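Section 5.1 Outputs to date
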Amino acid sequence: MLPKPMIRHLRLLGSNTNRATLLRKFKSGNNKFSSIEEFNKNKTKYSYGYNFDSLKELDDKTQPKSEPSKSRSNEDTIDINEAIENDPRLTKLKPGSHEYRETLHQLHQEFISKQKNQQKRYEFNERMRGVFYGVAALVGVVSIHQIFMNYESIKNRLLMNYTYKDFNDEVGDAPKKNVKSSKHLLEKLERELSDENITQLKDSMVTPGVYQFGDNTKIPIRIPAFDGMFLKDAFIERGHIIAITDKGKVVEWKRGQHAVTEVKLPFLVDKITATSDYVYYLTSQGEVAYTPRKSAAGFLPMLKRNWLGLLKSQTFNKLDVKNVVQFSSGINHLSFLTKQGQIFVVNSSKNPKNMGQFGPQYSPFDKKEIPVNKPIDMTLLNNEIVKEGNLKRIVTRKFTDIASGDYFNIAADVNDSVWTWGDNTFGQCGDSNTTQIEPIPRKVFDKKDYKRICRNVFGKGAKDTNFEVTRVLASKETSYIILKYNDQNAILSLGNGLNGQLGGGRYLHVCSYPEIIKSLIGLKEFDEETNAVVNIGIKDAIPGRDHMFIVLDNRGSKDVFALGSNQYGQFGNGKRIKACKPTRLPRLLEPQDGENKLDLAKSINDMNTQRLQLLDNHKIGKRNVEQAIAAGEDSSMIYYKVK
């Protein structure tokens, strides 16, 4: 706080300042003029430069006024004050009054609000106009691009009427036919079955032989060259059959031949398979021999000395392996299983397409050269590390089944686990990550997985310990697993199902999670021996390239179902329609069927009472025989086999 003497000094200073101001204001009146004329006489003139007499002229030159734009709206030229003062609400009020000023303020606010709304509307219209111009420009650019890219097509369409005005391309509608009528069935049968085919028919219950269908033959036709023959195994493709007789001899037949040709080999053969370059034979001694299908590059025949000691080349060669019990082939590789439960893979091509089917030793990432017809031991697959306490040791893993697709493999071990490796483009290896290469074998399914997959089929109370893997199968790009649970069977399928070969009722391009062929589960029949209703199991499944046959294990003759592609008539049902779930097939033709073709045509379409049933435990002479099916590339066959 200031001291009192200081406060008094400030007060005096303030009073002196006010007095000086009043005196200054009073004295300033002496400088005023009495009239405007006197002011004009005494005013000082200033020079603003050359040719400028006044400040207004200088402003007009330096800052010329622009003419008002003709495009300005009428609202811009309105006098705001005049518009407000002429408002009817002000005419009744006294100027300068409180009500007048308040109403004037309200009118001013309303005017400002109206101006803002008009400004917003104007801005919105301008934006919409810009958007419209942009869309129009985009449409124009796209239209010009399409016209440029499709100029020839547009020109042809515009000139079509001028160019082809004299050309009449009207085609009448095809006559509607009743495809189920007897007449239509008879016409269809006559196109498929010639008189020569009818004369070649033999009694299927008495005379063994071979029935071939597919390869554009939609009805099973008997091949006279195989009449009276019993076979162990057969390989079939378009117009070509290689078969193993019951005596272990190899015979070959090609379309147009009236007799089979024997392939002379100095050993007996039990099984046969083929890749794109070689035919492989499993001998009765557990060895694997092979012959070239054509002039295979790099084929080295086996050399043998005759009784004179001279080397003589053979028409075959053998793999360096023994005790083989099973094998399967893809496009350019062979996989086989030994008696000890070990798996080996063989490359059969000089320039193979490597999709990982040869295992990690010849991974496609390494770009190694793969030897031809040299067994490759799947070391990581055939062995496993077992921990016992603090110690670890390597033990042998044993397998029970092996199958090969085009570029992948699937195997089952003694613990009913399933292993896969190779091409997984369609999920056929059971991996949801459908990469193209899986060179390292991996376990994809075990008993716990079967319980989870089949929980809706066998019930949630199913025990995983009761599941067994009876077989694994492979076609072109599809894998199959046949499971057994107590006295029932189930088939799991995964991979490419575009032709319906998965059998689950859907056409799927990629399927890495197993589909269940549910229509074959729960089938029952009455067993006269036990006088009870029993479940019907699955005896066998035979995959072709894009189709598969399933043989049921019912009492007596065995029912047969087919699924997958039927483009070339490989079902043998007189049609070319593919099936995504198991479908029944018509019975084989008998000699008496040729007497009445109309009845034959009707029986082919009757799948209930005239369905295909394979013979089993049937006596022909003194032999107990059965009928078996072989499936290949777009072709199929039925043959007789001694049990």
